[in-house]
Amino acid sequence: MKGFPGFPEGKQRFTLVPNLFFSDLLPIIDDLSELKVTLYVFWALSQKEGPVRYIRLVDFLNDTEFIKSMGPTPTLAAEAVTDGVERAVARGTLLHVSVGSANGIVDLYFMNTVKGRAAVEGITRGEWRPNPDDDLPITLLAERPNIFILYEQNIGSLTPLIADQLRDAEQTYPPEWIKDAIELAVENNARKWRYVQSILKRWRQEGKKDGISGRDTQKELRRQIPDEYQDIVKQ
User: Residue 7: inside a domain, yes or no?
Assistant: First the structure.
């Protein structure tokens, strides 16, 4: 067993831990990996700057001293970290959201606080822009894309995956096409983004008639509907 020489004399830096951790959370944590991960997050987030702070999965794995405490080998340590993080998320201590980046999907973890919940909801709704590659604070977007508002008003709640697909659609199709395709989905009671995507793909392949949203006949409208959805739209 490695000994600890004690805390030195003089000024020390402290990490704030809420009293609720000791009274409510600590008594129900029954796994050592989860406990270590939870305590580490309190410390790691205190080292970051900005009003909204998160930690990436890679941050756990890149801390060599922390990793040493999690297992006898790097592989076992990484497995213990992953298990501890998943347990903390399942318990509700941490909040998890995945975002796209230049290096692929990045997992971000927030403490389940008022700010953490607001950040996760903001990312999901496209109101926040995280910087998972550069480890910079999240910034609030000045204005949400109209396509997000259009989707929420007509199709449903945003998810990070849908938000990414909406951004791709904005780069691929004219704005009026997207608006008309969503209107057609609503009119035919097929409120699914996959349905809207199918319409847009067909218009790109076969051409789109102007006035699809209001001036075409029902027969002409139905010709625009992808074959795989013909059985679910209203007659």
Answer: no
- Which tens digits make up the pLDDT trace of 101-139? 666 777 889 999 988 988 888 877 776 666 655 554 444
Task: Residue 80: give the domain boundaries.
Answer: 19-140
Name the amino acid, one letter, at 82.
Answer: T
- Kindly tell me the burial class for residue 81, based on how many C-beta atoms sit within 10 Å of its own C-beta (0-12, 13-18, 19 or more): buried
Listed in sequence order, the residues at least 6 apart from 132 whose beta carbon sits closer than 8 Å to its beta carbon are 56, 99, 101, 106, 108
Residue with tokens 């999240």: 138
> How many distinct structural domains can be found in the chain?
2
Q: Report phi then psi at 136, rounded to 5.
A: -100, 160
**Is residue 110 classed exposed, middle or buried when 0-12, 13-18 and 19+ CB atoms within 10 A define those classes?**
buried
**Full-model pTM:** 0.58
Nearest Cα to Cα of residue 150 among 129, 120, 126: 126
